[in-house]
């Protein structure tokens, strides 16, 4: 009996090793998917960014790009470490809570988080839309009446903006950000009470062009966009 139990435990441990990556997604330390040192380094205060392309709303980064944050984003997006989505989603949620407490964002229990658009094939090749996954994790932490509205899509003909300069990115994106479907009535003030405030979410901000296009498109549809949050500014 004891031998059976030991064997079952060994089998379960082996299965757990298969399911949970054994390297920290921030620093590569073995034995844990996310180590305490990386957790502490991401415990930062949000800071406002001044992107080259003005998005028309304040944009905040939750941490510096580099170190564990950069590794975690790359591991999530490029190496399909989906176990890092809750880690980074919590960083986003903590930042939104701080900003709401400071009065820089509306109350954090009634918000619509709209992920910045990703091109469909880019999302597929990266194993899903990671920005939407991050926003959902953040919404789970914030609870209440926080909802994720993946309303935006980038037209199929745009090129991947990675590697393009600010001007090229703007031209590449101009008119390319579209609504997947009409916005929910609560976001345009057509339901009961005032419109739910909208916050645009992205992973890493480089020039600001993507967030700017997203804000413009949402506002044109009647949404009350109050700000944008990103994990980090590159
Ligand atoms: Zn680590």
Automatic annotation (TrEMBL):
InterPro entries: ComF/GntX_DNA_util-trans, PRTase-like. It comes from the Bacteria. PANTHER family: DNA UTILIZATION PROTEIN YHGH. This is Phosphoribosyltransferase domain-containing protein. It comes from Gordonia sihwensis NBRC 108236. The lineage of its organism: Bacteria, Bacillati, Actinomycetota, Actinomycetes, Mycobacteriales.
